[in-house]
Amino acid sequence: MNILKNKSSILVGLMTLLFSGALFASEGAKGWGDMTTSSLGYFSLALFGIAYIFVMAEEFTHLRKSKPVILAAGIIWGSIGWVAGQNGMSVEAEHAVRHNLLEYAELMLFLLVAMTYVNSMEERKVFDALRAWLVKSGFGFRALFWITGILAFFISPIADNLTTALLMCAVIMAVGGDNTKFVSIGCINIVVAANAGGAFSPFGDITTLMVWQKGMVEFWTFFALFIPSAVNFLVPAAIMHFAIPNVKPEASGEEVQMQRGAKRIILLFFMTIGTAVSFHNFLHMPPVVGMLTGLAYLQLFGFFLKKTAHRDNVKPDNVESDANMGSPAAFDVFSPVARAEWDTLFFFYGVVLCVGGLGFLGYLSLASELMYNQWGPTSANIVVGVLSAIVDNIPVMFAVLTMNPDMSIGQWLLVTLTAGVGGSLLSIGSAAGVALMGQARGKYTFFGHLKWTPAIALGYAASIYVHMLVNESYFT
């Protein structure tokens, strides 16, 4: 009975917050005005802050990060809608939330296609074959440190940095075994390399994709960040190299064969990227239209694989293999779709709408005035990178794009670089770091990463300096 009473009181409290217009409407009765100092503004800001505390505590609470931000987004826009209705601003509020939903839909569908291709390559054992080859090659710890770092740097611009980091970490764990020092430093190097590699490609990170789809930087212009990104990876790697044990472990005899169609799926992925770029550059259509066209390539090829499943002695109905049959299931394109990172995609929805709501209330204009007008764009963009080590870079970059400060291409490239690589400063600063703390639990830790933060910060500063030096022409 007491439990029911407690639940009832909690429900009443929530309903009061959601539907009591008196708290909010009183301050806007004479017009919308500046809502940054209103009860609605403070309430929305506090709600987003609380939701984000839950996001950062995901590792300890095991509450998926999408849940608190989706709830916060609904409450924030529900509150805005209530107050807007009291002040004759319903149409403006509706247009604002629809604009945010459109931006989210384009990015979500783009990412969904990319994730489907990556999952398809994983299902065809592309990444397993690469991992097995590295493990059986008999490289020493120092050689493997550089190989995994370089591969992470060059794979993450195509696949996402999370998948790349998990793949390379599996290699480090398989070879390093109980050598905690090697595993820890190797994981740090992988996180830095994967984040740096994602910064110079429109496909390498969600933040670069956001900047490209928003039209702030052209597709090929992103590759001007290649040298600064390489510096960001190489400086700390060169420092950490001397701490790697000079040991050569025994090679493994493991072999993994890619399944039929694996190489053709890789080719189709590159064709899909080419289609997306062509739609954007030559047809002036949103890149997501080209990506969804590329999904059709995979669907048609998947149909071919399914119809010719007898060539691999697999079951055509896509029922999972069992011990009696001993053969894999036939390829079905909707299985990779189902295995997409849905928590990440819905987290992105919550962030876009939360930040969009705060922007509608005037907070992003306030932040833009402080950061880009008073501090200057260079200082502001460097701070954005540091913030992305504490707060996820997605809301930080979306906030910058919503502010839409008047900046040169060089400054937009700078904020793309800093938001992409700034998360490497802390293990919790990027999805790659958080994932590897779970994969290499007890060996790669927050404090183990923190020990090398000065070296990573040196690479961060060096990459900014190199960018301003080699890409000087973009700052005019």
Automatic annotation (TrEMBL):
Signal peptide: 1-25
Nucleotide-binding recorded as keyword: no
Transmembrane segments: 40-57, 69-89, 101-118, 139-159, 219-244, 265-282, 288-305, 345-366, 378-400, 412-432, 452-470
A biological process from GO: sodium ion transport
Domain Citrate transporter-like: 53-420
GO terms of molecular function: antiporter activity
Subcellular location field: Membrane
The keyword Protein transport belongs to this UniProt entry's keyword annotation: no
InterPro entries reported in the protein's UniProt record: Cit_transptr-like_dom (IPR004680), NhaD-like (IPR045016)
PANTHER family xrefs: SODIUM/PROTON ANTIPORTER 1-RELATED (PTHR43269), SODIUM_PROTON ANTIPORTER 1-RELATED (PTHR43269:SF2)
Protein name as annotated: Sodium:proton antiporter
Family of the protein in this entry: Belongs to the NhaD Na(+)/H(+) (TC 2.A.62) antiporter family.
Cellular component, GO annotation: membrane
Keywords: Antiport, Ion transport, Membrane, Signal, Sodium, Sodium transport, Transmembrane, Transmembrane helix, Transport
Membrane topology: Multi-pass membrane protein
